Amino acid sequence: MLVLLPPSETKAPGGDGAPLDLAVLTAPELTDTRAEIADALVKLAGDVPAARTALGLSPTQDAEIVRNAELWTSPTRPALERYTGVLYDALDVGSMTRAQRSRATGRLAVGSALFGLVRGGDPIPAYRLSAGSALPGLPTLRALWKPVLSPVLAAVDELVVDLRSGSYAALAPVPGAVTLEVLSERPDGTRSVVSHFNKAHKGRVARLLALTTAEPADVVRLRSLLRRAGLHVEHDGGRALTLVVAAP
Q1: Could you give the CA distance from residue 174 to residue 160 in angstroms, rounded to a whole number?
Q2: Lowest CB count within 10 Å: 31, 72, 160, 236, which one?
Q3: How far apart are alpha carbons 34 and 23 in whole angstroms?
Q4: Where in the chain are the domains?
């Protein structure tokens, strides 16, 4: 089972790993595109006003541009430690035992505007680039990633659970992947899409899937696994699951 997570705009600083080496990252087929985007991002950092515009940053966020400028020289840390925020707080890698951590790094991967795809243990630096960003002189990120990333994901020969947000899923959709929508149900039975807590719920699901010893082979078995864990999961017969949570 491969669980695809969205990245986060916020990243943990520092690290004790060697500087970025694209050759050690998962899926070497992506190396050329990674290098092209990384070089463009470093070059863009040399023009602070242009970087602010391209990345959607304010002057108070110039430290993010400095991170990009130091992309090739700054220390790295495993991807599951680098990304932060609501989803990764719920995933809570720091509380895992060594055996659990090993299982998680093998099952979890992160969609990335800069790297395309990284496994949980891949060493990466802090950076700032979102799926919707436009880098001067380059095609859109979707145009860059889709031709090279789609074959990599299509070649995965295990169940793929795609928890990526829409903009990252659009970089390279995965045919046949199981998706998860989170709905909030009120006491009167009406439902609405969860917005604020969506990432937290997906982080908890990701943790469950990362740590289980089960190996669900299809969407039906995956639904059963989630239900046995106490989650209210519905299945309409397709490839989509719906997680229903009580309204706060």
Answers
A1: 8
A2: 236
A3: 10
A4: 2-246
Q: What is the DSSP string of 210-244?
A: HH-S----SHHHHHHHHHHTT--EEE-SSSEEEEE
- Whose CA is closest to 101, among 119, 113, 116? 119
Q: Does 195 score more than 90 pLDDT?
A: no
Q: Whole-model pTM?
A: 0.94
pLDDT exceeds 80 at position 196: no
Q: Degrees (nearest 5) of the Cα angle 33, 35, 39?
A: 120
Mean pLDDT within 57-78 = 97
How open is the CA angle 24-25-30, to the nearest 5 degrees? 120
> What value does the mean pLDDT take over residues 63-77?
98
pLDDT digits (tens, 9 = 90+) for 19-55: 999 999 999 999 999 999 999 999 999 999 999 999 9
> d(Cα 237, Cα 129) in Å, to the nearest integer?
36
Between CA 238 and CA 133 the distance in angstroms is: 32
Are the C-beta atoms of 202 and 233 separated by less than 8 Å? Answer: no
Q: Which amino acid would we find at residue 114?
A: L
